[in-house]
Amino acid sequence: MANLLELRDISAGYGEAVVLNHVSLALPEGQSLALLGRNGTGKTTLINTIVGLTRRREGSIFLSGQDITRLRPDQRALAGIGWVPQERNIFRSLTVDENITAIATKGPWTMERIYKLFPRLAERRSNMGNQLSGGEQQMLAVGRALALNPRVLLLDEPTEGLAPIIVDELLQALRTIVREEGLAAIIVEQSPRKILPLCDQAIILDRGQVAYQGTSEDLTNAPDILATLLGVAERGAAPAH
Amino acid sequence: MLTILFDGVAYGMLLFVLGIGLCVTLGLMNFINLAHGAFAMAGGYLTIVLMNRYGISYYWGLPAAFVFSAALGAILERTLYVHLYNKSHLDQTLFSIGLVFMSMAIVDYFMGANQQTINLPPALDGRINVLGASVGIFRIFTIVICGLLTIALQFIIAKTRFGSRLRAAVDDGRVARGLGINVTTIFALTFAFGSGLAGLGGALSIGIISIDPTFPLKYMIYFLIVISVGGTTTITGPFYASLLLGVADVAGKYYVPEIGGFIIYTIMVAVLILRPQGLFTKGATR
Amino acid sequence: MSGSHDKDLQSASARLLKQSHSRWYEWLFWAVALSLFVIFGDFIPGVPTRLMLLTEIVTLALLALSIDLVLGFAGIVTLGQGAYFGLGAYVAALLAKGGAGTFPMSDPVIGLLIAGLVTGVFGFVTSFLVLRGSDLTRLMVTLGVALILSELANQMRWLTGGADGLNGVMPSAVLGIWEFDLWGRVAYLYSLAVLFICFWLSRRIVNSPFGLSLKAIKNNPLRARAIGVPVNARLVAIYTIAAALAGIAGALLAQTTQSASPDMIAFHRSADGLLILVFGGAGYLYGGLIGAAAFRVMQDVIGNITLQYWQFWLGAVLVALVIFVRNGIIGMMVAGWARLRKGDGQ
Amino acid sequence: MTFVLETRNLTKRFGGIIATDDVSFKLPAGARHALIGPNGAGKTTFVNQLTGVLNPTSGQILFEGQDITNWTVRRRATAGIARTFQINQLFAELTPLESVILAINERENAAHEWFSPLGSRETIVDEACALLDRLTIGDVRDARVGDLPYGKQRLLEIALALAAKPKLLLLDEPAAGVPESEREQILDVVARLPAHVALVLIEHDMHLVFRFAKTISVLVNGALFCEGTAEEIARDPRVRQVYLGEEEVQHG
Amino acid sequence: QEVVKVGLILPMTGQQASTGRQLEAGAKAFLAQRGNMVAGKRVEIVVKDDQGVADISKRLAQELVVNDKVAFLGGFGLTPIAMAVGPVATQAKVPAIIMTAATSAVVPQSPFFVRAGRTMPQMTFPIADWAAKNGIKSAVTLVSDYAPGIDAEKFFKQRFEEAGGKVLDSLRAPLASPEFSPFLQKAKDLKPDALFLFVPSGQGATLMKQVIDRDFAGSKIRVIATGDVTDDDLLNDMGDSVLGMITSHDYSADHNSPENKAFVEIFRKVNNNMRPNMMAVAAFDGMELIFRSLEATKGDTNGQKLVDAMRGLKWMSPRGPMEIDAQTREAIPPMYIRKVERKNGELYNVEFQDAGSIKDPTHTHTK
Ligand SMILES: Nc1ncnc2c1ncn2[C@@H]1O[C@H](COP(=O)(O)OP(=O)(O)OP(=O)(O)O)[C@@H](O)[C@H]1O
Ligand SMILES: Nc1ncnc2c1ncn2[C@@H]1O[C@H](COP(=O)(O)OP(=O)(O)OP(=O)(O)O)[C@@H](O)[C@H]1O
Ligand SMILES: [Mg+2]
Ligand SMILES: [Mg+2]
């Protein structure tokens, strides 16, 4: 099966400092990947490198087999990369509506559909970006990325600051969307417990390098790896009911 | 009385004309472009040259000034201004002052240091009676043009997708890029347009004042006052601010001439203390 | 980490303290400034006398230093420092004139102190205007204050001489000992000494806890408030101090040129001060000093080459500097130094 | 019982939106309280009014029995109200050490000293270093704050609030962006605060909430939806319906 | 061969730049006409740009004296600039020729000041006289709100009212403002017989534009001014609407004399066909003063001797007969009433009445 997104041997950094070292990954249609790692290991850097906003030093990036390494960020976005930045970065002087329409492209994700996913946003549609609560901003950031009608979704900690009831819904919804609409997604998360059941693959970064790469199922069943690489032994993913 | 009101409005329009391009480059793009006056000067001098040397009519001079300054703006944006968007306001100030110095010397070199004026076409010259007040035709002409421009601009900014993409790019250019907005092109177009407006403003203003190489510095204070009092988020804000300042200044000088020199500055300071974001901004608090 | 804990703490405190120690290059800087007196003081045959220019540079440097305190450290963009500069100039000039060249009223040092005091008070009063608003707002409010003041200077003819300026400004000998001379020798040493004292004070201020709180306010006033920093009081304090320094700078210029006229309070003073500071690099204290020297010398050199069009080249240098260099001349030197050291390391 | 904090009929409107709806709320000294609720329920707005960032439309706020409704942000801070911000509010150009020293200086009334150099008071520097170590960011204390990874910035955010040695500490999603492993650490630091300090935690991570809180208030649409002990809230089906969803709740 | 240096301190950039250019051009024209040798010495000009700022001019003066060892200073666009240079001239005993600054208070500031230009009352008295004699009973004055403007207002009022006229109101427009309409409207509303104007020579064009726009001619109000407003430099661009405007001044490029013909011709030749104005002629006469004084001292550059040699000098200038008052060191230029007319396709101030030579009336001092 053809890979929708493929990274080959990516190194990147800021200024002189190299933060990412030779990261490779491949993501076929309909699959999602959990990107894990402690603070400062380079998750955001990896996402931003795919978006095209960090200085790439080596390696190449393919989207549906097409080399997008040399495209500008905006061209990559139009080629199908949808991005939810870690700090949300809602356009503060645009209303909720405008935040979406400003970047929307034609496709299955219309404004109505986004508002259906986040009814809370619909109630605030004429609020300015800087007049939203933290969680509302997060919803808008996700909605905005969907409005691009992307083929690949890059979500940098998309559940941060969302109420538990929404987190569940959102992750479920993302999983369905990715499967059914043939997208691919990379989801950065702090909590493996939440994300692993919903993803197909998983990568753990450690100091800019891939420390673990495999299916998320394998990782779920490897508490020692989770413990050493992420330090999360004590809180398993035991089901509640 | 009515004449004074009308003169005030007309003076307001002069202020607005001087600042209109800046509403775009500083107001919308958030670039401290003190070189605004240089683009206005370019438009003004082009019109003078076209009229006085080549006998071309003022009506053609206006669009020509727009096109010329816009082209100049586009070139400078691509070569110089692009490097400045990500720098601090302070760097932008220094840079644009540098451009002002250069423009003054260049104009001095080609056009000489003395003041230059134009003679308006007869249709725009002279005065007519409106509601019993005698008013200059050219002043009406500027009021009409400014009013139309304001409406059109405000529409583009507030209601079109281009407007929201521009504001998004200004809010956070990096993220806007990452979300598919071609910030480079949008900025280039907007900057060129703003410069064109500056040029048009320059061409209009020489119907009322004369021009010399110190123009960009001499009137810098005025166009900055308009923008800061009106607020930087809309076009209508500076428009109303110009009207307010114009009427207050003219009426003040007419009725209490002793304090004539202080009025405009005092209003500015008072407004900015009471409403630091400008008089006509929506309450954007944070 | 806990093993070397004590030693670690030691060095944290020591490292902070070290930041406020003076470095060798600082001593070099002042030594050079002093040696210029010998070189350009008409002691060496064939070398032109440039002490007047140097004196002008010193006053500008002091003006830029005062802007650095509010802008580089507290983050208040100001285009109105000329107001305090001019006020200081008028106060000093009026004192010198009033005392008709006699001690103590016309004594330059006393004049400086009074000028600093008066402008400090005026700075305190006006500081409340700059507490709110964005960069642009503050720029315009400070500019507005300066414009109003300069219009006042023009209107209060009975006191200021209006547009003609004050004449007959005759400060007495400095401390009653050193007469101002045609070569500007006394003027230079006197201004340099004043600059040095003001600089030293500023340096203590920015390296103190008070200075730290200013930097915090500049970075994030919302957070500063939330941890209990009295933001407004701090801004008022530094603005007042800076105003007094600007006043002293103006007083220096008035005394050494024996005149005061509306252009000492005009817009271009504020603009020059700001330009010079950004040119030299804001936030280093030395930026204003080096900027003033570089700016004026450049103006002088280019002006000698092309009398009418020097503005073009000056503008070109400004443009290039902003595009290619971060943080002005000092920023350039710091970056160069870092690269050099790195080259050594490899 | 003495109350550190009390609000009376606190209401905040933004145009047509009622962000805080007639909230009367009491917090005893030494409380370990959590404030939860759906997104946009008005939690941050509530905290902003307590700390003075926003002025309430109507109602009163009392701190240790005094009406502080009209106090400035800073006056409240010096009186002993500290907070962390949901979205980082740090001093990007300073180092973590400098940031914390600054906060301690303010507390110790040493920040207006303008003549003695920074670092001349060793006790303050020592305290700052110790605090940073406690929050596991001692190793980056001389880095530029703006260059720190997000998670470390979150920790510094808390360090700044702790440095003030507050009587009332308001934590607005302190763990957001912090990896699970370190979340516990944060709570430990917070839990070790003196018993008389009243703590209010806003968090969407229910593990943390239920481990930490003795009492919980639920805000919905700006109004107090229900209050109770942690057990009561965990069991409340209405809370489950509006907020918790299927979230599994273990009570520590 | 010995060199005598003349240091000219001129505003070559900024608001006053056009003044500086005219002054420099005038001095150049003089050297082109007269040659640079006098009393066996070669005269050299050193030009410095003071940017119109007083303390810079003071510094430049000092450097010219100390470094360049100039024997004369000259130029000075504005009163405060001349004032600032005064102490240097006095201390260094170097004659300083005031070419532009027109306030009467300047020359008494230093015993080494000598004026080659003219003073405010010398310019305003003739037009006030003319107005009174030509059926103008009432007038309104409008001046720029700064010292020379206020001088103009004062002297016009004084002279005009002495002659039986009445000044209805004295309006002052802020120096920097580009808008004159409230003042012009007020003047119009007062319905005087004439409106008297004075603005610094740079602002004439803007003012006249707005004066014309307000249609004073239609309301039977005559517009009169000192020659600054219809500056030769700017006149041509102002257009036909200024035709017929009456002003008083000592120089017009149109002045009909062989001296002026020669001056205009050489001036245009060496200065890129520029038209000379009152600044240019003042610089030209300033150089004349320098040369004549050097001739008189036989090349001696002792400052006191040079100044003494200038006292009472008389010569035929392009403006007409010129004299330096032996007592006050003030210039006594000839004055004319002129009217804007079209000549050979260009606008000129055409002199139609000789107002004679006027001593500056404000001076009572001797020395
Ligand atoms: N703008 C920057 N300049 C310099 N270094 C940076 C910059 N941004 C991040 N870094 C460094 O790059 C490294 C990786 O940071 P990154 O933000 O990618 O981590 P992360 O895994 O996303 O962490 P977190 O979980 O905290 O979000 C960190 O060590 C950080 O200090
Ligand atoms: N300045 C403002 N203008 C208008 N509405 C605002 C403003 N600030 C906040 N709101 C609205 O008030 C409501 C409460 O916001 P608040 O930030 O307090 O929510 P929250 O409970 O903290 O939510 P979250 O859990 O998502 O952080 C939100 O619906 C928000 O859109
Ligand atoms: Mg990250
Ligand atoms: Mg919140």
Features:
heteropentamer, B: 286 residues, mainly alpha, two-stranded antiparallel ribbon, 12 helices, 2 strands, 70% helix, 3% strand, globular, E: 367 residues, alpha/beta, seven-stranded mixed β-sheet, six-stranded mixed β-sheet, 16 strands, 39% helix, binds adenosine-5'-triphosphate, binds magnesium ion
Summarize the structure in short.
The complex is a heteropentamer of chains A (241), B (286), C (346), D (252) and E (367). By secondary structure, chain A is α/β, with parallel strands linked by helices. Chain A has helices spanning 43-51, 73-79, 96-101, 111-117, 119-123, 134-147, 164-181, 192-195, 216-220, 223-230; strands spanning 3-14, 17-28, 32-37, 55-63, 66-67, 81-84, 152-156, 184-188, 201-206, 209-215.
Give an account of the 3D structure.
- The complex is a heteropentamer of chains A (241), B (286), C (346), D (252) and E (367).
- By secondary structure, chain A is α/β, with parallel strands linked by helices.
- Chain A is built from 10 helices and 10 strands.
- The relative contact order of chain A is 0.18.
- Chain C is built from 15 helices and no strands.
- Chain C has helices spanning 5-19, 24-40, 51-73, 81-98, 108-127, 135-155, 157-160, 185-206, 209-219, 221-226, 231-257, 267-280, 286-305, 310-324, 328-345.
- Chain C has a single domain, classed as ABC transporter involved in vitamin B12 uptake, BtuC (Orthogonal Bundle), CATH 1.10.3470.
- The two termini of chain C are 29 Å apart.
- In chain C, α12 packs parallel to α15 (328-345).
- Chain D has a domain at 3-93 and 161-244: Rossmann fold, CATH 3.40.50.
- Helices cover 35% and strands 25% of the residues of chain D.
- In chain D, the strands form 2 sheets. A 6-stranded mixed beta sheet of chain D has the order 6-7-8-3-9-10, with helices on both faces. In chain D, strands 2-1-4-5 form a 4-stranded antiparallel beta sheet, with helices on one face.
- The radius of gyration of chain D is 18 Å and the shape is globular.
- The complex binds adenosine-5'-triphosphate (ATP) (2 copies) and magnesium ion (2 copies).
- One magnesium ion (MG) binds at residues 43-44, 86 of chain D.
